[in-house]
């Protein structure tokens, strides 16, 4: 018996196969993971992401605190509602978690962190927040629904009062705004347009039913994983963890080394790794039949060191297997991956594999 | 509840066996197994001519979620395999006891040593407890 979101009963009612995810009883799929995947790429799907932790930070020194806590720089957030994707590092540069931070107000930031890491994240955040007089409040009173797909924003906006809809539809990518007790953000984890909506837990079931009536298809964690992998987005625990830093996890773009005077946690370790060089993080496309899976060995011609698949799956959009992998520097365009004792040819590619419904990789 | 045809024989690893003409058997995975695996995306079947021991891992069925071995329920020689699954692995989800068959085996073994439909149904019951 795991933790349950306010939508658990509806998932069961809709025939979901329930699995444990980070201690939560969550829907894996509602019948067909592949159909759910296609619904998000072609129309609109919705995910219950209420298991993720919403953490509000308030206090006059919140910005100063986050500029130390996070590897990306919240000073880049100039307008209220803007969001930033970032890693939270330990002093060795290892990734404690990846998260999204929203600039809600001058003295108020909102973090959305992973469910499986919530306890250690909160302990880490609290251990550093005190010296900045920043209050840390976990918003267990909120549920969150992600509505994703080319028609997602239009369908999800109908949940709002008619007077609120234009403002929601005008939100720029990676921006959010409060609508009464709801917070609507144009963010997601699928490579499609859409909203992530935080709302009081009591509103969630009604919102889910109305989305369902509006033709939005429920989608489970299975489709969430194939969608994010096609979109080239990392999964915490697979593609990065405390033993690996962002530079060897394909996340160098999320680290703000400038300005040089900003002393964020992990900076010294990352600067050293940057000077010395590190493994590369790449996409793989399997040239043959089969399915790439995490922990498979990746071998490159002329290199003794081995790489490893960190996330792999079958891509429903490409109808081929794709993966993210950490490989030695100098790995060429063609590699071999070991699947059940046999070597299979794979091509090194640059993620994302799919964005906005379109394949970005030539098959 | 999953579908368990009464005219077939079953294993604890969720394969089914159907007697066909000439002392051969047809083998596949059960409705319960395909349901547990989810959408199948890759199926590898044994080559014709291969000799299998009872319990030998001889095929792989892979869903979006995970790969699973299929074990030969009986000893024998593979006389045919279902080539259609290479292009349409979803046949295994759609019709596990028909178009989703995996391979055919020439065997001298007695299918009576395997579970009946009733025995398999109660085995699934116990497994889910």
What's the topology here?
The complex is a heterodimer of chains A (363) and B (129).
Chain A: H1 8-13, E1 17-21, E2 24-29, H2 33-42, E3 45-48, E4 53-58, H3 62-69, E5 83-89, E6 95-105, E7 108-113, H4 118-129, E8 135-138, E9 142-148, H5 152-157, H6 165-169, E10 176-179, E11 182-185, E12 194-200, H7 201-213, E13 217-218, H8 221-230, H9 267-276, E14 280-286, E15 297-300, E16 307-315, E17 320-327, E18 334-339, E19 342-349, E20 354-355, E21 358-359
Chain B: E1 9-10, E2 15-19, E3 24-29, H1 31-37, E4 40-44, E5 51-52, E6 57-63, E7 67-71, E8 76-81, H2 84-87, H3 91-94, E9 103-106, H4 117-127
Antiparallel strand pairs in B: 1-2, 2-3, 3-9, 4-6, 5-8, 6-7, 8-9
DSSP strand tally of chain A: 21
CATH topology of the largest domain in chain A: Gyrase A, domain 2
Order of SSEs of chain B, N→C?
Answer: EEEHEEEEEHHEH
Helical region count of chain B?
Answer: 4
Provide the low-confidence segments of chain A as ranges: none
The main sheet of chain A comes to: 6 strands, mixed
* Oligomer classification: heterodimer
Query: Within the CATH hierarchy, at the fold level, what is the topology of chain B?
Result: OB fold (Dihydrolipoamide Acetyltransferase, E2P)
Query: How is the largest sheet of chain B built, in terms of strand order?
Result: 1-2-3-9-8-5
A few lines on this structure:
The complex is a heterodimer of chains A (363) and B (129). Chain A has 3 domains: 8-47 and 141-230, Probable tRNA modification gtpase trme, domain 1 (Gyrase A, domain 2, 2-Layer Sandwich), CATH 3.30.1360.120; 54-138, 2-Layer Sandwich (Alpha-Beta Plaits); 246-359, Aminomethyltransferase beta-barrel domains (Elongation Factor Tu (Ef-tu), domain 3), CATH 2.40.30.110.
């Amino acid at each position: 018996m795991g933790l349950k979101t306010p939508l658990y009963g509806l998932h069961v009612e809709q025939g979901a196969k329930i699995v444990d995810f980070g201690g939560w009883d969550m829907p894996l799929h509602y019948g067909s993971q592949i159909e759910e995947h296609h619904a998000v790429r072609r129309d609109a799907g919705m995910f219950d992401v209420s298991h993720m932790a919403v953490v509000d930070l308030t206090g006059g020194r919140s910005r100063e605190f986050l500029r130390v806590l996070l590897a990306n720089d919240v000073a880049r957030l100039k307008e209220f509602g803007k969001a930033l994707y970032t890693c939270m590092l330990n002093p060795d540069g290892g990734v404690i978690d990846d998260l999204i931070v929203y600039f809600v107000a001058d003295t108020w930031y909102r973090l959305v962190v992973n469910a499986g890491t919530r306890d250690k994240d909160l302990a880490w955040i609290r251990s550093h927040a005190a010296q900045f007089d920043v209050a840390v409040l976990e918003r267990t009173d909120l549920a969150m629904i992600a509505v994703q797909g080319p028609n997602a924003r239009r369908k999800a906006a109908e949940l709002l009062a008619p007077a609120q809809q234009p403002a929601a539809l005008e939100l720029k990518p990676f921006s959010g705004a409060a609508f009464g007790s709801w917070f609507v953000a144009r963010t997601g984890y699928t490579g499609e347009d859409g909203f992530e909506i935080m709302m009081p837990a009591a509103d969630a079931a009604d919102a889910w039913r109305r989305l369902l009536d509006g033709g939005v298809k429920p989608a489970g964690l299975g489709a969430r994983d194939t969608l994010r992998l096609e979109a080239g987005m990392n999964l915490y625990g697979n593609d990065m963890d405390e033993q690996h830093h962002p530079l060897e996890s394909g996340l160098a773009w999320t680290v703000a080394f400038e300005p040089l005077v900003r002393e964020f946690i992990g900076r010294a370790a990352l600067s050293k790794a940057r000077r010395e060089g590190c493994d590369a993080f790449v996409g793989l496309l399997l040239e043959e039949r089969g399915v790439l899976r995490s922990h498979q060995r990746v071998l490159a011609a002329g290199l003794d060191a081995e790489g490893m698949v960190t996330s792999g799956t079958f891509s429903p959009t490409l109808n081929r297997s794709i993966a993210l992998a950490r490989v030695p520097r100098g790995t060429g365009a063609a590699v071999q991956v070991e699947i059940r004792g046999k070597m299979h040819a794979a091509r090194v590619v640059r993620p994302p594999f799919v964005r906005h419904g379109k394949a970005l990789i030539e098959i | 509840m999953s579908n368990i045809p009464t005219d077939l024989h079953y294993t604890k690893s969720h394969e089914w066996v159907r007697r066909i003409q000439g002392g051969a058997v047809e083998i596949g995975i059960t409705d319960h197994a395909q349901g547990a695996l989810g959408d199948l995306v890759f199926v590898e079947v044994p080559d014709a001519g291969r000799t299998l021991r009872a319990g030998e891992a001889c095929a792989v069925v892979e869903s979006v979620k995970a790969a699973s071995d299929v074990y030969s329920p009986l000893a024998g020689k593979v006389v045919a395999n279902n080539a259609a699954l290479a292009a349409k692995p979803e046949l295994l989800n759609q019709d596990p006891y028909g178009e989703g068959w995996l391979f055919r085996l020439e065997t001298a073994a007695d299918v009576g040593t395997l579970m009946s439909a009733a025995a398999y149904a109660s085995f699934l019951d116990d497994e889910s407890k």
